[in-house]
Amino acid sequence: MAYFAESSVINLPWLLLLTFIGFLPSIIWLAFYLHEDVKPEPKKFVLFVFIAGMLSAFAAAVLEINIGCFITGECAKNGSQAIGDLKNATQFNGLIFAFVGVALSEEIVKYLAVYFTILRRKAFDEPVDAMIYMIVAALGFAAVENVFTVRLVASQGGGLNDIAAILTLRFLGATFLHTLSSGIVGYALARAFFSKRSHFILLVPSLIIAMIIHGLYNTFVGKTFDAELGSADFNYFFRSIIILLIGTGVALIILFQHLRQISAGHKFINVGDHAQEQLS
Hints:
The chain is mainly α. The chain is built from 10 helices and 2 strands.
């Protein structure tokens, strides 16, 4: 990413402060979602999945750069340059990159972070765990994005007020969006894992839904920044972002409640490829 070189002018104490500040949105959302979990997950596994989510952000960056290279025909050296090249691409190619190159690739790597860390462990023993751990991975992913964002703002001369403004927007927007899209994938994962149905049958549609929501959000945000503040286009796309986030948030709450209802009165054990009900 472009700011790796630029951020070298930032001294170590300032860099550590920026890193801490960048983690705040994810920490706040993490506390909220874990509070909603009736049976709290082991802290070591939560941390494990959070770190896996952080690592998945770097995998996503590599995918996005290479997909951007394929779409534009010009191989970028970093994510920022890849986005810049796409501004000169056709509108169709830009949409393909927004939905497939960015949204789908990010949803897949967040899912893989959960799949390879917690899915086969005994701690994963109730349907709602799937949504919780997917959200935890998403927050780890978003934390890395936020840290790089605040470093970029600082490297370009932005002060604490600028950083606070950007992080507030990301707290209510991008970070929240990551939890929503991953929560949807987590719901499908729960239904598949705890009903012995094929993961593929339910996972693929959920990834497509998450991709559409994520891609629409990215598109709306891009259009909002391109529009003049206060213009009809700005107001339209800004309202679209709010409606998308609130609508998806309400849907996620309903899915949470549904998983709690279907698991009430049942105990499950993890047997590797799926869960089975534990007989008393």
